[in-house]
Amino acid sequence: MPSARRRLAAASAVVSAATFVSLTPSLASAHGSVFGPVSRVSACFAEGPETPRSQVCKDLVSDSGTQPLYDWNEVNIANADGRHQEIIPDGKLCSANRAKYRALDWARTDWPATAVAAGSYDFRVRVTAAHLGTMTMYITKQGFDPTKPLKWSDLDPTPVGTYPTPRASDNGYYNFTGSLPARTGRHIVYKVWQRHDSPEAFYGCSDVVFGSGASGAKAPTENKIEAGATHSTVSHQGHGGDEHAPALASASRPAESPVSSGVALSASAALFAVSALFFRRSR
Fold first, then answer.
1. Within 10 Å of residue 90's Cβ, how many Cβ atoms?
2. Is residue 67 one of the residues assigned to a domain?
3. Which of 165, 172, 141, 163 lies closest to 251 in space, CA to CA?
4. Is residue 186 part of a domain?
5. SS3 label, residue 256
6. Which residues span the domain enclosing 126?
């Protein structure tokens, strides 16, 4: 019977579409910033977006406003897909070439800095959404001039830390151990965090000083993070910066399932409705 075959074909098409929808991963962004050694954006956020203390953080707010600091966990490129050097030009590494964070690229020696020494180093990264990926830490070569914009060629190609990021954090943190080489003076530790479940990647610059001269940069406290969450424009359901969402929305829970429960329920409802219609008309 042609009509029955047509109904069967239509039902099969809808069932296939519903099945595809139910298996499609839901969107979610990983977000975070290095707290040890503390990144530039996190150090300025810790001082307070409305009342920064250091001159460089005051200048950042004067130039770009307070929003880049409230969005301390966002410095990202949604479609990086491992093409870091291709899409981020020299001099724009700290901002990931985003105008919103342009002040982070300033070549200044008064950024809050962390005192470090050669040898084992415990990296600490505050994440507000955890996802599968690889976090790679680099450091500038000996002889780096901090009064000049950071270039890709300034970075030692040998990572000082590499961490396969899991789908769950340790109470909102990734903690891993790397090794810092012998250096003198002021340097930059550069973070590249490439997700494996999305082309999105995150970046960050942390100022460090080998020997004396560090300013004792402070990381934001949990109270500071919680207090600033209502001012954040970072979304954990897209790629950030496009809708309001609290910064702590996913801080201490495992990442969401790759299958959205709401979508799965909708797909199941569609399957039931199509099946009922087909069998009712077949009788």
1. 12
2. yes
3. 172
4. yes
5. coil
6. 31-231
DSSP, collapsed to helix, strand or coil, labels residue 139 as: strand
Question: Tens digit of pLDDT for each residue in 1-53?
Answer: 445 545 544 444 443 443 333 333 333 345 899 999 999 999 999 999 999 99
pLDDT interval class at 237 (50, 70, 90): low
Q: Is the previous residue joined to 37 through a cis bond, with omega within 30 degrees of 0?
A: yes
Instruction: Give the CATH number, domain containing residue 86.
Output: 2.70.50.50
Q: What is the pLDDT of residues 65-103, one digit of tens each?
A: 999 999 999 999 999 999 999 999 999 999 999 999 999
The Cα 63–Cα 231 span in angstroms is 18
Burial readout 258-272 (b: 16 or more C-beta within 10 A, e: otherwise): eebeebbeebeebbe
Cβ atoms within 10 A of the Cβ of 80, count?
Answer: 22
Query: Is residue 46 situated within a structural domain?
Result: yes
Tell me how many domains the chain contains: 1
Is residue 22 situated within a structural domain? no
Neighbours of 58 (CB within 10 A): 14
